[in-house]
Amino acid sequence: MKIKTDFVTNSSSTCFVVMTKGELTLPQFIKAVGISPDSAFRDIYEDLFNQIKSDLKPIDSFVGRDKWNETGLSIETYIKQVFSEQTYRRLKEAQENGYGVYMGRLHSDVDEIQTYFCTSCFVIEGDNLIFDATNDAW
Question: Which pLDDT score is estimated for 17?
């Protein structure tokens, strides 16, 4: 029998839902996170924002093409299974109030920032923005 004793890696990803009224902007995101524009942590959240923004897709496109949705679940069933009933209710309310709903994914093997947030479970709420990353598979 062989036993591996050095570093073993396992990459993973976590999906998130973004509900926003209008375009998702960096100032809106920074304000919702709750840090000041001159915070020492701004670079971390700016990088996170850029990674999030580059991966956003409209929810119907994301769910319809997600590799974990091979059986073709509806958006409602998918969100309830992957997130929760509460996330689905929040999503429906946001849509009824004119918010755009998008999804994306964070990956644990991209860089330290994505790894940290990929392995965390959180919700960010701000003016005209809800970011739900409660689908933490870790």
Answer: 93
